[in-house]
């Protein structure tokens, strides 16, 4: 049989296939994508974790009593209720202001009613330090409860005190 160019004398072997085929391409490195993802995702995840931590862990708890002086809903995008209580320790003293934030609408209705009444109120609060944005509130004190308390508001004018009656002078005892 003469040499036929179209058909080789033997079949193709693995070595023949390797010699004819192109070498495999190097795997593409996607370090640019990983770097971009790391620069965007890692700070966002850390901020989210810090925000969750500061909003769920309480630094301190307490109560403040006074008269609600200001109560309003503020914010461009994130609306929160912000208020001030005037705390007077003794009548005639300049009251100290305590600013607080209310995040719950039902509690905001209670505080607003106390504000409209002008009643003395007790605000229970939790302090959350380090909250990263003002979207959750302008202050670090978040009100968790409010109630009206009795008693006279310090510094407020009350009814005039009754004066004891003066006994009549006895005849002959005239004091100059």
Automatic annotation (TrEMBL):
- The segment annotated Disordered runs over 155-176
- Keywords in alphabetical order, please: Membrane, Transmembrane, Transmembrane helix
**Compositionally skewed regions (Pro residues) per UniProt:** 161-170
Origin, by domain of life?
Bacteria
What sections of the protein cross the membrane? 34-53
What is the name listed in the Swiss-Prot or TrEMBL entry for this protein? Answer: Uncharacterized protein
